[in-house]
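Dear colleague,

Thank you for sharing your sequence with our group. We've completed the structure prediction you requested, and as agreed, I am returning the results in plain text so they can be pasted directly into your records. Please verify that the sequence below matches your submission; if there's any discrepancy, let me know and we will rerun it promptly.
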Amino acid sequence: MRKIFLTILVIINSANSIAQSPQSQYREAAENLNFEIEVMAEKKLCPGVRLVKSCGNLVCEKNKRETIKNCPSDCLKGVKVRSYNNIILCQDYVSTQIPINKEEVQDIIKKAIFKKSKVKVIGKSHSATDILCSKGLALPMEKFDKVLGITDSKYGKVVEAESGITVFKLSEWLSEKGYALKGIPHMGFRDVSIGGAIATASHGSTPKHTGVLSNIVMAMEFVDGKGNIQNREYDEDLISNQKFEFKALRASLGLLGVVTKMKLLIQPQFNLHVKTSYHRDSTILKRGLLNSIADCDFGQFNWFPGSNKIVKTCGAKTADKAKRGAQNRLLDPAIPPFLSKPFKQILQLGTCNNRVMCLMERVRYWQFKLQPPFVYGGKKKKKRYSHNLVGKSHRMVSSHLTKSQAGFFQMDWELAVPEKFIQPAFEAIYKMAKEKNICLPLVGVFIRFAPIDDATLIGHTSSLEKGPWQKGKIAAFFEMPVYIPLGFSKKKFDQYEKKYRDFANMLIKNFHGRPHWGKNKTWTFEKVKDQGTYQTNLEQFKKIAKKFDPNKIFTNKFSSEIGLTN
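Please find the predicted structure tokens below.
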């Protein structure tokens, strides 16, 4: 096993050389790695080690022993909508229709009412919960991808854009005009649609500024559940009911209508000076998460609990010039394509032998040190890695997703915790991780931050009148991205997953945790509903959903189970 560890480390450290000479000695190293894995597969130390090489290419290969049971992503028929990670597979859609304008959306909704059918808006399918699935018609909004211009509003300049455009494409357009989205609301993954990101209250990471994209929505056009075009604009002087409606629209989970366009607050473009530093986790534990990140405009941690290490990323606004080609590559590491299958196989082995998983976590941590998640360089020049780099704000806080993601199965457990419980929660997770020997070789435990606010009803950072979710305080997001093994029996999989279920359950039960709407499993949302974590906000949302969607066009099983619709 030590030989495997060293071989992977050498290959990763030499990724740039590999790109320059694909027939180099490193291919020979990879072949040796494959040989070592095959020897382990022959010993049948873990089910699914060979299966992971083929499963995930969306072709059911019976000659490789793929079945609906062990490889549903490839063998399950009738899947019209699937999550980006192939975990959520929606079979019940009757058809898919891609509208090109709001009039066509109106027509679709009115026909659905007549047929008593369902309609579900689809963005980039980055949400990996059952909110993605429904019956009837799937409605991808990919044609709604235009920026309509910049105008003035009562609260400052706004950009008007259609809902299907990606956050990164919109930010690039704004940057060319000398602007950026207000605050630091960009998610770690940059290629989500603004409509989907807003609907799920997705977030960036900042202890100082607006960190949730939903919060900067100032106007919205949408087609409601009666087929009518509705326009809503934010105003602090709105009467109570109208304020609640706009808060609901800002984070709607697609349950109030089909959003066609919106206006978002913007600000002058700025650069970030980002530094990556490396620490023992005990050092951060002693100093405190918030104290360690307090001086950062953009700040997050990647904690590798099995290695006792934390990678801190801290970005400060600066007037310094951006380095040519500077950008974030956290989710797109330079792992050679020919290493992706062996990497998956080793992770599969790690699900049966935790020592292997911890070994791989060490590899990933050392890759962070050898290849920091920030690069710069022109198109014709070789990309260079940096621990200390200045770049345009949106490029420094978000990343593309690696192409090696195809055929890679992962589950994201993420919960938000209010400021009062951030440090106690971290201490409890720390203790649990050490006791259960949790090792996370993907990106470790993501720890991110955003101010608590009153901009939405059901956003993860929405404030409440009573309790710890108080406006003006900070929330921390604890996320465990976990590899999902193939070929396990239900019993064996439940045993493997238990420690991650315990993590989510503990944060909800003991620390007022709120699960991210685009991640986790349905039971986490049901538990939050039963505990009253959102107090009366869920009921208020339900009333608004009934008003805008009396025919239940946009409801699905998920929304009913978690108490957002009848």
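Summary note from our side: Residues 15-23 have pLDDT under 50 and may be disordered.

Kind regards,
the structure core
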